[in-house]
Design goal:
Two copies of one chain form a homodimer. Chain A is of the alpha+beta class. Chain A contains 19 helices and 30 strands. In chain A, strands 9-10-11-12-22-19-18-14 form an eight-stranded antiparallel beta sheet, with no helix packed on it. In chain A, strands 8-13-21-20-17-15 form a six-stranded antiparallel beta sheet, with no helix packed on it. In chain A, strand 28 and strand 29 form a beta hairpin. Chain A is elongated. Strand 16 of chain A pairs antiparallel with strand 16 of chain B.
Chain lengths: 727, 727
Amino acid sequence: MRAAFLAASFALVAMPQAARADDHTSTASASADALPPLYAAELQLAKTFVDGMMADGVVVPQPKDPGGGYTHEQHKRNFRAIYLGGQLFQVTGEQRYRDYVRDMLLEYADLYPTLGDHPAKANQNVGRLFWQVLNDAMWLVHAVQGYGDIRDTLSDAERQRIDDDVFRPAVKFMSVDSEHTFNRIHNHATWATAGVGMTGYLLDDQDMVDIALLGSDKSGETGFLRQTELLFSPDGYYTEGPYYQRFALLPFMVFADAIERNEPERKIFEHRDGILLKALRTTVQQSYRGYFFPFNDAIRDKSLRTAELYDGVAIAYAQTRDPSLLSVADFQARTVLSKNGLMVASDLAAGKAEGFPFRSMLLSDGPDGSQGAVAVLRQGAGNAQGEPSSALIAKNTAQGMGHGHFDKLAWQFYDNGNEIVRDYGAARFLNIEAKAGGRYLPENTTWAKSSIAHNTLVVDERSHFDGEVEAASAVWPEQLYFSDQAGLQVSSAEISTAYDRVTIRRTLLMPDIPGLEAPLVLDLVRANSPDSHQYDLPLHYSGHIMEFDFAAKTNVAERPVLGEDSGYQHIWVDAVADEQDGKGALTWILDGRFYTYRFASDGPLGVILGESGANDPEFNLRREPLILLRADRQSGGTSFASLLEAHGKYDGAAEQTVSSRSRVADLSHDQIGKNDIVRLTLKSGQRFAIAVSHDPNPEQAHSVSLDGEEITWMGFTAVVALTGGEN
Amino acid sequence: MRAAFLAASFALVAMPQAARADDHTSTASASADALPPLYAAELQLAKTFVDGMMADGVVVPQPKDPGGGYTHEQHKRNFRAIYLGGQLFQVTGEQRYRDYVRDMLLEYADLYPTLGDHPAKANQNVGRLFWQVLNDAMWLVHAVQGYGDIRDTLSDAERQRIDDDVFRPAVKFMSVDSEHTFNRIHNHATWATAGVGMTGYLLDDQDMVDIALLGSDKSGETGFLRQTELLFSPDGYYTEGPYYQRFALLPFMVFADAIERNEPERKIFEHRDGILLKALRTTVQQSYRGYFFPFNDAIRDKSLRTAELYDGVAIAYAQTRDPSLLSVADFQARTVLSKNGLMVASDLAAGKAEGFPFRSMLLSDGPDGSQGAVAVLRQGAGNAQGEPSSALIAKNTAQGMGHGHFDKLAWQFYDNGNEIVRDYGAARFLNIEAKAGGRYLPENTTWAKSSIAHNTLVVDERSHFDGEVEAASAVWPEQLYFSDQAGLQVSSAEISTAYDRVTIRRTLLMPDIPGLEAPLVLDLVRANSPDSHQYDLPLHYSGHIMEFDFAAKTNVAERPVLGEDSGYQHIWVDAVADEQDGKGALTWILDGRFYTYRFASDGPLGVILGESGANDPEFNLRREPLILLRADRQSGGTSFASLLEAHGKYDGAAEQTVSSRSRVADLSHDQIGKNDIVRLTLKSGQRFAIAVSHDPNPEQAHSVSLDGEEITWMGFTAVVALTGGEN
């Protein structure tokens, strides 16, 4: 009985034409009980949404509002309803879904030819149904799929009207009127070419397909295929970063799936060594507890649970049967109503899922992988999904186009489920009308993109490349070294172009040190310059201050602002300290865990405790703490060595507190030749050196003498136990 | 087979003596598989903890450190180990647990007689093992239970030593040396009398039992029985508030359980109409999503998942078999290793749990219920546990002794899983040494207890009763009205003693209004005074500002402090506005939901947007936003009417935003005679009046004429639809 229902439901999906001729409501409803739970739930969600839309009738308003406004949201709802309505008709065979999609598209056939530029136009990339062409492209990508699900059942006259008054003019708008967008190497163009190409397959119009794949001039210099070559690195990293990678992935995967179905001989999923499937996995790798690393312009609440990835996971699973993709679908708790989605849901229900292999990895940037990289270092026991407890991200990428931030060599750090060392992401409240119509806020430029808003070195209170995208896009850091060796992971990178005549090298290590808890992060920043400079090293952390060991002058009754420009105008100064010995430590608590940031520089340090949110009359910024180390140095440059030490536990429910104070008594840093030697003295009296030669040859022995102690090690770096005595 | 194991495990618990004679390790281990899951897990937790302690050997350090310090935490661990070790011996019969508890107590027998006042003494209530006598009492309550589990198995010499050198001197310290604490009507005394009384039962010392039950002089004026009469109201509300109610409940329940076992003829659980069982349920009622309402001194991360309640729930379940207590245990995911705990775990596994009946209720304060009240209004669809989505708490209680805050008629509000209108709780980092040794911080007095830190009316920038506990403890508000009628719940209360010659009445309503989403809160505050005053009405909300409709002067580059004293010194001023019409609205977002606070006063209003955290050199305070309405009025007083409107949804994952803007166009407030009339005009054009007669008689008709409209209703309050026209 159950087997029969399952077979019937597969048949419904696989053979919609056959199912469609009769009213299959009762069969479909009965079979729904036998569908795998994820698919059955998805079907129910779609029905709830589309039935709700149908109850309101067909509503196709004259375009008027910007993002988040009524007409914007209604046209978004409409394309979802067309897309899902078509699928529901395919799955259930219910005529009413077909009729609704048809009637909706006929309304658009009345409206579309009358449209000019959208009245909420904000820049040159204006749309017709929406304020920007991107949203029109998204409309097209979804609507053409829904149309494809019903087109064969329409009368010739209906089909002709919708073809000629909706999809052909939409394609013309995308590819001719918006040619500039269409021929970019950019995610907006991916959406546009996907929409046009999929329309071409549906209308059997080879010209549309050709321009979609090869660009308006069919030269292959632009177009979808070229985008797959230029927008991803060989490691599947998308140049704008994970937030836009997720977003771009939908048209890449959905159009590729259409290409595979219509022209399997193109072997699109094998193109460039399987770049699209690699890109999908790389997207997942760039997440922690399901949330994407928020560097560059990014909305922080974007997770793997995002509509753009449901299709991608299902398509990739259909291509690969990789069981770890099932665990992604399981985390998403969503899929799609396609045959692919049914396969995902069935195999998930059959218990075939395996944990996704989150791991340390170096993701090169640039079409040929030579434009810097993102280093991801993961450590610690896995959670229920097998994901390690800590993750360090070193952002040594190229600029990433207009959505890139000025944050060369910046880092981020996650532990215990939380973002401990933060990236602000974008200053934007997506689709919230009261906040600049839901678009990027002015503070995205004045704060979120600025260097000081990131965990990177800032010279003379100016952003990297002085905040100029063009200059920033021409160059990139060099990833000098990467090691995922357990117990001593490393990323080291350098850039000499962010500032004139300043070379910055940052080496981040995650060492295991006996007597200290994990995770530990050692951060070595070295700036070389022949000139005098002010060097600022901010750390944007999450948590509440427990204690600090420097004598701070606190601004308790009137809070000044740190600077005038380049993001400094957005920082309130809570306290300042002057550390002549260049050393200090700050301890905070987050979510029951303590973190101590302990630092040493090569001369006197100013220490500033601050908070974001100054010069923000509209309350657009989040207010988040930071500590800033400031070194004023004559020629030669400076160095900062710091240790982030996770320790202890506060359990409010059990009223138990353990190890709320750092276990480290002292940290000192020396540079001897090319070697960095960081010596730690624990409160227990144990002493260790973390020695870094910066020499990648693992066979090379290194030795330095320091305060009468000989420290020897092999290769790039090592943790060396020192004797307790001072010699 | 399974039934046999279950029976065996019950026997182990019920007949420890019999089981103890042999080595039951293998039987116990086999039977553990058959134990109900919650009990088996508890057993494993206890073994893990005690085995870990045993691996370290017996460690009984000389008392030295304050809360959170090493010796403090070690003596806490020790009393847990004694308590659990005794239980493990009873359950498993393993000799090693008995030996460990014995050896530990013998160590204490060496140490205890040598002790004088603890060196970290902070006030007159100094302990011996701990910095305060309270912790010594907690040690005794736990240790005597563990001792009871092994005492019969000791040699006479061992028993004599432990009796004479640990428990008798501990009882003397509690009841004689600390007589002041022992004879208070206070939770510290509950712990002390419980420890002494339970020791009395164990040592068969009737004198100890008598002084525990009736006070040092055995008059019954103080002691445990009197505490059950004076510390709880007839509704089971504990006068210090839920945080201390939870804390006090453990000794109340555990000692009562001992009384019931030793002197069942006392019918202690029926005493005063079953007050102890009522108090347990009332404790649970004072929580939202498991977290206690944090008013008065309270650590905000205290939830039902707290050691103090595991015993209480098990004891109450054993007395009542109330299936809703099983769902509390299920939420806690913990129980105790007693026979009561086994019953809870078994019945839970048998599926007997029912949802806890969270509901709107009025909890009177004071021994006879006449000292004000806490009103809890709940509304909305229940979550999986059946708990409604919204809760409003009107705090119209007496002072609640030294841990009480100066917050007469304050309120709090929860919705969508979050605390939308906040109570700060205590300024304290429990047991974190770096923060004043884990004790209450200076800011607990200067900020957390102050009136301005609460959602209450503040007159002339002074706290209620000028912050004097004695004056505040002599009087209380009057609860004028309470209604839990669905769709129009009400709490109304008044106090005339918080300030000289000022009477404050606050009426909080949760009306359903067609065209608006739920929940809605209407807040009517009326102050009457013959004198000129400045009236400040703060709202401490949670969320990020989306927009406001008043022209604010923002302090974007230098942030001043609001005032000098009474908590005002801790408020940063972000923006100020001057609203001549006395009206305005502020919208914020929290966790995907929008909230608009819309207000109207009877004259010009100053509006201040601020944040806590000024004058806080040690970073002891959380930084949280507030809006403050300021009315300077000549004689007569003032009124504030405000509507808190929850609306819309922001779904970052789906990039969908709905109704991010308020649906209300205007709110106006009129007082006509004794009636308050609030008129709302929605953006849809719909108009409603919420009419409040303040007359509790439901049969009484009321009518007012306003701008040519006749508004009529029955009883205390009603929502009246008005016509669209303006007349």
